[in-house]
Amino acid sequence: xxxxxGTVAIVTGAGSGIGRATVELLIEHGASVVGVxxxxxxxxxxxxxxxxxxxxxxxxxxLAAVERAVDHFGGLDSMVLNAGLSRRGSITExxxxxxxxxxxxxxxxxxxxxxxxxxxxxxxxxxAIVATASxxxxxxxxxxxxxxxxxxxxxxxxxxxxxxxxxxxxxxNAVAPGPTETAMTTRIQSSPEFYDELRRRMAxxxxxxxxxxxxxxxFLLSPAASFVTGVVLPxxxxxSANSGQFYPAGA
Length: 251
What we know:
The chain is α/β, with parallel strands linked by helices. It has helices spanning 17-28, 59-73, 96-123, 145-165, 186-189, 192-200, 210-221, and strands at 8-12, 32-37, 49-53, 78-81, 127-132, 170-177, 232-235. It has a single domain, classed as 3-Layer(aba) Sandwich (Rossmann fold), CATH 3.40.50. The longest helix has 28 residues, at 96-123.
């Protein structure tokens, strides 16, 4: 039985990486999906995929995605608020405009997505929302204060929203991926030393794949997680189990 058969989802940041893998998982399991990203995607050619091109930090993009879900597929059952952005630079060097943009794409967009989607979910009697946080929202990283701050914001946004929306049978959770091979991490992947440094900090001794994060998202959206809300689920190969003081045996 397909866990998502007959459901309607919105996925932001849907054009690549975790977002694309999530769209592919959902349609494979019977859902219809509205994908949202800055650029069009070949995914839109699927008969159960509609596409909205726009900036998720803008209210009208989120409202347009919900409207498309309702008009084309008859309603909205779930949302995956996955769009992300990273900027590197120390606390004394990174431009505040860069910080503001990261906060807009990561935190503001998550809030806007939830606000836009809730009325349509209430019409369906409830729903499920998953936001993409990060292990970088659970701790700090050198030169990544903007990203760390934004992802930590998503984590507490999810917790707070779960309390506000639980009585309406809307569940709100987050996944916190560790190092995952996506377009966003291309620069790190191209540095063998840095890539291997992160790999050795994970219990499974390897980087994650987008499909593995999508699988966790699919679980949190599914009826199997019907009593799960306000949770931040690390999907990180065991990275967050590591104190950071020693490498795992055999690394």
